[in-house]
Design goal:
Shape: globular
Number of strands: 23
Helix content: 25-40%
Number of helices: 14
Distance between the termini: 73 Å
Oligomer: single chain
Strand content: 15-25%
Radius of gyration: 23 Å
């Protein structure tokens, strides 16, 4: 496999203006995969200028929806055709099991692009009911140049959630992937060009957040920015908007999702298996991972035992082995962060039931055992802060009121789950929980047709579904007066 880490700007591969590069290192075994352009302000300027020119001359924005649809459909087909290459890049770059890169990440990326391709010629404008002496047209127009900054845990999927609606609406895009997993974003840009997307419409500038990311967020000619990442960095995005041109900022941020299990739910083993599977999927590097499991005290011992029994099947192993369920954390820094949280849990009095240690250290990779804590207090560090690793905390509650209080006593509000056989309780608790999505008797089932996002410090705006068009379009009213005969 040939690794090309150069920027994609105005339809061409380019080295960084500074000539600087950084190594992208595989967390599987510490090997250097290749050199990547260290994009900076000059490269962002070039990419934004190319995107602005492409937008203003209408090479994409002025194309009929049916034309944009065909190009994006071709883009989705090329993603699927490059399935093996993209999956391998993703696994080598950020450590997820190849089985899921192949079965989840690549198909979901293609599905997202294809869905917005199909949607773009089915979104209608409006005529306001103003009365017989006026005609008020309400039209959607592309916002212009869109900046997109995406994280390292689902590099392709998170990029597609921004690219799909932004490109379908007619915008030009400058994407800044995480420096920890830039390779698939660069390859996606090439595939988009091969599919017929005009040069300048989709640009990729790899680099560090404090350099390329900050330059993109501060740029005076970026009209809107979609960001997925930490709440800490999301706050900076809002500051950058205020310091620049008041560009729209849409933040999809962290989570500390509550998974609430009531004693009237009959199939406790299924709830436990779902909690473990959802928590340890993608090594726990998911903003919506159910890291706070709230369990009624009468069933807590049985539930903890059932979850702990699931841990061996998620023992870290070689991500390139098709049988592996849990791979490597993205890098040594993230591994150290996760191990630090585990130590904090122990220091603060939580009981480590299973796991808690680094694994496969002899490989040179970044592996941590699936870890389950019991007797966690809701005010403990591991219950309050987003760990982004395979660490599940069990918190016990006495009754429904306490469960809702504990679940909502969090700075975050991304997702939640309610497990009960009572229809009344399911509705009652789901309504009481402050979260963007509440699952009932399942977790993490979703589809491109439903919005994804959170409340409180989990962010604003929604990815996926038709609602995502709201982020990347402007509403214009055109008022015509109709004179009497």
């Amino acid at each position: 496999m040939r690794i090309d880490g150069r920027c994609v700007i105005d339809g061409q591969r380019r080295a960084a203006a500074s000539g600087e590069t950084f190594d992208t290192v595989s967390p599987i075994d510490g090997r250097v995969l290749g050199a990547v352009a260290r994009g900076g302000a000059a490269d962002v300027d070039s990419a934004v200028a190319g995107a602005r020119t492409a937008f203003d001359d209408g090479r994409w924005a002025h194309q009929p929806p049916a034309v944009r649809k065909r190009v994006l459909q071709s883009f989705a087909e090329k993603i699927l055709a490059a399935r093996d290459e993209l999956a391998l890049l993703e696994t080598l770059d950020m450590g997820k099991p190849i089985r899921y890169a192949l079965s989840v990440d690549v198909p979901s990326t293609a599905r997202c692009i294809a869905w917005y391709a199909e949607a773009v010629d089915k979104v209608y404008d409006e005529i306001a009911p103003t009365g017989r002496h006026a005609l008020a047209l309400i039209t959607r127009e592309p916002v212009g140049v869109v900046g997109a900054i995406v994280p390292w845990n689902y590099p392709m999927i998170m990029a597609a959630w921004k690219l799909g609606p932004a490109l379908a609406a007619g915008n030009s895009v400058v994407l800044k992937p995480s420096e920890k997993s830039p390779l698939t974003a660069l390859r996606l840009a090439e595939l988009a060009l091969d599919a017929g997307l005009p040069p300048g419409v989709f640009n990729v500038v790899p680099g560090f957040g404090h350099e390329a990311g900050e330059a993109l967020a501060l740029h005076m000619d970026v009209d809107a920015l979609g960001f997925t990442g930490s709440t800490r960095t999301g706050r900076r995005m809002l500051e950058y908007s205020g310091r620049s041109n008041l560009k729209r900022i849409y933040n999809e941020l962290g989570g500390k999702s509550a998974f609430v299990v009531f004693p009237d739910f009959a199939d406790l083993p299924r709830a436990a298996a779902t909690a473990a599977g959802s928590m340890f999927f993608n090594q726990g590097e998911s903003c919506n991972a159910p890291s706070r499991v709230l369990v009624h005290e009468s069933i807590a011992d049985d539930f903890v035992a059932a979850v702990a029994a699931q841990a061996p099947q998620y023992a870290p192993a070689d991500p390139l082995d098709a049988a592996t369920e849990m791979g490597a954390l993205v890098d040594t820094a993230q591994m150290a962060t996760v191990l630090g949280y585990i130590q904090a849990g122990m220091d603060e009095g939580a009981r480590c039931v299973t796991g808690g240690r680094q694994a496969l250290a002899e490989t040179g990779g970044c592996y941590v055992e699936p870890t389950v804590f019991d007797c966690v207090g809701n005010d403990m560090t591991i219950a309050r802060e987003e760990i982004f690793g395979p660490v599940l905390s069990v918190i016990r509650f006495r009754d429904e009121a306490e469960a809702v209080l504990l679940a909502n006593t969090s700075a975050y509000g991304l997702q939640a789950s309610v497990w009960t056989d009572s229809l009344n309780r399911a509705h009652r608790v789901a309504r009481a929980l402050r979260a963007g999505t509440v699952h009932v008797n399942q977790y993490d089932e979703d589809d491109i047709t439903v919005p994804f996002g959170g409340v409180k410090q989990s962010g604003n705006g929604r990815d996926k579904s038709l609602h995502a068009f709201d982020k990347y379009t402007e509403l214009k009213t055109t008022w015509l007066r109709i004179e009497s005969a």
